[in-house]
Design goal:
Rossmann fold; alpha/beta; 177 residues; two-stranded antiparallel ribbon; 46% helix; single chain
Amino acid sequence: MPELHDLARLVSSAAAERPDAMAVVAGPTRLTWADLDDEVSRLATGLGRAGVVAGQRVMLVLGNRLELVTTYLAVLRAQAVAVPVNPASTPGELARMLADSGSRLVLGDAATLGGVREAVAEVARARAGEQTDLGEDLVARLVEVERLTEAFRQRSEQLHGKVLLSVAGSKTCSSGA
């Protein structure tokens, strides 16, 4: 096996070597290495189509579930930086982490939808110059965020009926939530 320094490439390598071997078991859902590699590739492609580029941060507000594994690996495969946070965080905590991390995209699930929407709205208000609970130091560091494209929203609905995709400072859409 060649030396690999990238976790997402390790998934591809395992898929090539043992495609039918079990990679992830989450309750009744089971993914082989080939299935996992395919799902990660599709999600990474969707991130790229949404405008996520190498080095950008993507916040993950997901519980301990299969989608956390697939989206985390997809972010890495897209050469972005995964920012996993506690899904039990309050909207105010999420807003501060979003502002502090400079995340361009937030991925969550139905359980975190409300808090993510509130956090995104608070960051948008701060960008617009409104008074928020975000400290001046965080407001000064807010990055310009990109809009989630319709193509990525539609792709996400095809791939993850349970994953919410939201872009900080713009809009929130849930796919199947």
